[in-house]
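CO-FOLDING WORKSHEET

Operator: S.A.
Ligand of interest: guanosine-5'-triphosphate
Run index: 603
Mode: holo prediction, single chain
Checklist:
[x] sequence pasted
[x] SMILES validated
[ ] output reviewed
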Amino acid sequence: MYKRDRIRNISIIAHIDHGKTTLVDRFLDITDTVDRRNKKDQFMDSMDIERERGITIKSKPVKLNYLADDGITYEINIIDTPGHVDFNYEVSRSLAACEGAILLVDASQGVEAQTVGNTYLAIENDLELIPVLNKIDIPNANIEETLAEIVDLIGYSPEDCLQASAKTGQGVKEILEAVVKRVSPPSGMLEAPLKALIFDAIYDKYRGVVIHVRIFEGSVKAGDRIQMMASGEIFEVVEVGYFLPQMEITDSLDAGEVGYIIAVIKDVSSAKIGDTVTSANNPTDTALPGYKEAKPMVYAGMFPGMPEYYDELRKALDKFKLNDASLVFEPENSPALGFGFRVGFLGLLHMDVVRERLEREFEIACILTAPNVVYRVTLQNGEVAEITNPASFPEPGEFLRVEEPFVDLSIITPSEYMGNLIGFITSEKRGDFKAVENAGKNRVVLRFEAPLSEIMFDFFDRMKAISRGYASMDYEILGYRESDLVKVTILVNKETVDSLSFIVHVDKEYSVAKKVVDKLSELIPQHQFQIPIQAKSRGRIIARSDIKALRKDVLAKCYGGDVTRKMKLLEKQKEGKKRMREIGQVTIPQNAFLAILRIGEEE
Ligand SMILES: Nc1nc2c(ncn2[C@@H]2O[C@H](COP(=O)(O)OP(=O)(O)OP(=O)(O)O)[C@@H](O)[C@H]2O)c(=O)[nH]1
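OUTPUT RECEIVED:
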């Protein structure tokens, strides 16, 4: 048997918490892949933040050597896919590196919207699907219903679905057997020029960028000169190897295999996900299909709490970018917040992760302004401008039309919540209801077209509340469409705070402006004087809320108390200051800058 015929490249499609990490751990046990002494609790989850939130954004691939029932040892490569819609492009590239995918569904939860989205991506990539019902050890697992949902989704018969418990190990070996039998080995000629797909790239402090590749044709070894087809950049290969899951050097990576290439690349932006690596001396004519430049979907301002931290913030963002090609930033000067950066993210989860890591790893506390989508404005002279900052949104009369990104939104929900969900999305979220389809017993898929901005902010929690936690969502970008949008500016104590301005649809101008000024008046602490908070749009004040004056000294509380307590309080205030901002005479705390994100909280 050729080496290539013993290879299987797969990924695991699963909704958050359906048990992907646990299943891979069982695979590692069965194949004795990880030395148990070195084994952490769960191998696949790597970053602290991910561990705390219980979500895996991305993990290293892993190569298993599995001795199958037919007596042959197979090389099974498992490529992880991020489980969040912010990273859909990366999911599609990881799937493109595989011939098969395990579709893992928690039998106590059923099929969720994200699973459906990723299953369609797998089908588009011609992957062989192996449906697996997980957590069958749970007493209230709905095996029959979940089976029916899977049958509805992919049209397989129930007999094709495996049943397992990643926790107890029941049925896990059968999954590996199915992978070997049902998934085809990779094709692709070893003698052809090198053609490898980059499905991930991470930055290593000591070794530079480590590219994760799937070799489609040809081979690559140390000493080869490789070329990135999108950028044209050329590098010399220093090392190639496999993920066991720790990196293990090898002589060459051949057609069909998954592994890594190290080539003294200083910046991940030289090794873009989805790009094709070829040989510089003997290049292939055609790149692998599907490469796209990852484009940030949301932008927010990031400002150091105090001007002296500006350089630190810039250095931290620079370092961050080494490992995250999808992060973009440029300097921004705000009249209210001073010097900072306008930062582009793939989505809100991406934004949260970046902010948290800046705080933890770089100990930088910064002020983050409310995120916004990218607007496309056609000016009077016909010029088209992309607006990433509400502060630079033109005044009415200065532009001909404005467009915003729209998405195809799908929601899976028990049918009893259908009416309320449709009502919420069409009346409050500017959504257009398009279709409803059955998804198993008593469950439906609802399809809408809606503006991205509406589903990005104040959407998920409302959807969950309306459906008592049962609905799940997924979306795909449709493109830009014209909308009637206006800019609302906020004045605090009669001064315009540019970083609080936001863009809103004219129909919601008054209601949102009112909610924002009310929210701000709760979030901004009382001062010694009264503070008016006003919202202004199209030249008029459209909403106002006042913060009453206060007369109290923080230290008064500590009068007579011991000195250390007083010191601690002062110390704490100093810390807090880093994330506060003096605007004129008013101190505005960090959370006020995100007020627009929270206007739905009390409903
Ligand atoms: N009872 C039971 N619990 C399971 C089973 N498989 C996983 N779990 C539990 O389900 C929870 C989520 O499992 P993970 O493996 O972390 O899920 P995941 O899909 O990797 O989650 P993300 O990393 O967020 O994508 C954990 O508490 C597991 O212990 C199973 O077969 N039976």
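REVIEW:
The chain has a mean pLDDT of 86.
The longest helix spans residues 563-578.
[x] output reviewed
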